[in-house]
Amino acid sequence: MSRKNSSILWCDMAKMIAQYSLVCLLVFLCACGYRFSGAGKLPGSVTRVHVAMFENRSAETGAEAIFTNALVSELLRRSGADVVEKNRASAFISGDIRSITIGALTRTGDDEVLERRVTAVVDLKMVNRKGEKLFDVTGFSGDEEFAVSGSNLSDRASSEEAVEKVARRIAEDLVSRMKDDF
Fold first, then answer.
1. What is the distance between the alpha carbons of residues 50 and 130, in angstroms, rounded to a whole number?
2. What would the pLDDT profile of 6-60 be if each residue is shown by its tens digit?
3. CATH for 3-178?
4. Is residue 113 scored above 70 in pLDDT?
5. What is the per-residue burial (b if ≥16 Cβ within 10 Å, else e) of 167-176?
6. How many CB atoms lie within 10 A of CB 22?
7. Domain parsing of the chain, residue ranges
8. Phi and psi at residue 48, in whole multiples of 5°?
């Protein structure tokens, strides 16, 4: 294995460890009932919600943690609800990442890509303890553009950053839609 390949492998492992650590931290904080101040109510006046890890049907490795973390952060920040472990919740949120696509947005006259667009499509559902649907959205999408530099490592980092921005934007929009006063 070349030195270049081993350093790329090490970077990928380090990223996965960092993502796992972030998920563990969020689970710990949620288990404690930690909450940021915020406004608005969730459907059915839910005050304690459990968020399951998103199901990732895309080819984007680690997207399930990114989207789950973004939704948890937004719920804590703006919903007025506590994100708790499953046995303490009065409602349950589950989500599917249906797709994440990365396509060319602009090109030069020589057909060289200058900008790319990341588009993510998700489904989200919230049910109460009885299994009654409180909120449901299918095919919700968001996108983000990023510049292409020509360096594979730099472009990959820009792509990952764009995925994180899309996840945050989708989470913001979904929580806004969920709140009773939308």
1. 14
2. 455 555 555 655 555 554 444 445 444 444 444 568 888 899 999 999 999 999 9
3. 3.30.160.150
4. yes
5. bbbbbbebbe
6. 14
7. 3-178
8. -135, 120
pTM: predicted TM-score of the whole model, two decimal places: 0.75
- Average pLDDT for the chain: 83
CA angle at 110 for the pair 102 and 153, rounded to the nearest 5°? 40
Backbone angles phi, psi at 146, to 5 degrees: -150, 150
| DSSP calls for 66-122 | HHHHHHHHHHHHHT-PEE--GGG-SEEEEEEEEEEEEEEEEE-TT--EEEEEEEEEE
Amino acid identity of 6? S
Q: Which tokens sit at 36?
A: 């940021």
Q: At what angle do helices 63-78 and 3-31 cross, to 10 degrees?
A: 30
| Strand-pair partners of 92 | 50, 127
Average pLDDT for residues 161-166, to the nearest whole number?
A: 96
